[in-house]
Amino acid sequence: MNVLIVDDEPLSREALETIVKERPDVEAFDSARDSFEAIEKLNGRTYDVLLLDINMPEISGIDLVNRLVAAGLSLPSVVFVTAHHEYAITAFEKHAVDYVLKPFSSERIHDALDSAFRRTAGERAKSLLEALPHLQAQSKTPTPRIAIKAKGRIVFVQPGDVVAVEAEGNYVLLQQRAGSYLLRESISTMAEKLKPYGFIRIHRSVLVNSSYVEEIEPRFTGEYALRIKGGKEYTVTRTYKKGLRSLAEFWIGTDSFLAD
Fold first, then answer.
1. pLDDT tens-digit profile of 73-118?
2. How far apart are the first and last CA of the chain?
């Protein structure tokens, strides 16, 4: 098994390294001082378990997991490490996403690793996605926001409130659940900036927030109809249909659904 330790506190990180070294079932491990370093390591190697601190500067442990989910990366078993008992401990246990409360003992870490090693990839994804809303609500780190210029003001918008982005000439229409903003920006630039937050491009002129997608349906033309919450429907052109794979962590009984 491969383990990645992510903690900005040197003493805590060293303690975890010492415990992990004791385990004969750990083939290799790496350490990261923050989420930025963790992302680099996750992009270069596959890990079975992530020992992840919650309170870290700039990108918290919760935000790191959100980014992994949005990017569609394979998720390791995640064991959250926190010094704050108020972080919805009951929710962690209920949803089978383990946690360790600081200061931790060697035995507690070993128990968490034993549990993490036994989980299948499907179980890891399901339990982590179920627990994320509870963790996000408790996190002290502000959620990411988009700063946009509108009518001479700077307005801050959360990516999760944006349903879709549509190109209109040299502008894009940023559509929220309530209201919209017309911005002088290209759809390609918006696609690049919003990709980490779960947005996919379904047409040369349209991006959608994957969390609002309710249904997709094939058409005889080789295109797809995509329906979002509220009933609005978009056309997914053949050029962009491969991006539909990122709508779900795994697919069941749909092997030929998105076949070329």
1. 667 888 888 776 655 443 344 333 577 888 889 999 998 888 887 7
2. 36
Homologous superfamily, domain 146-247 = LytTr DNA-binding domain (2.40.50.1020)
What beta strand segments (E) does the chain contain? 2-6, 28-32, 49-53, 77-82, 99-101, 146-150, 153-157, 162-168, 171-176, 180-183, 199-203, 206-209, 213-218, 224-228, 233-236
Q: Does 136 score more than 50 pLDDT?
A: yes
Q: ∠208-65-128 over CA atoms, to 5°?
A: 95
Instruction: Quick: pLDDT tens for 39-66.
Output: 889 888 888 898 988 888 888 887 888 8
Please tell us whether the domain made up of 2-138 is placed in CATH 3.30.930.10: no
Q: What is the pLDDT of residue 74?
A: 66
Structure tokens at 190: 């918006």
Q: Which helix (H) or strand (E) holds 71?
A: helix 61-71
Sequence ranges of the domains in the chain: 2-138, 146-247
Residue partners of 134: CB distance under 8 A and separation at least 6 = 88, 91, 92, 95
7: tokens are: 């903690």
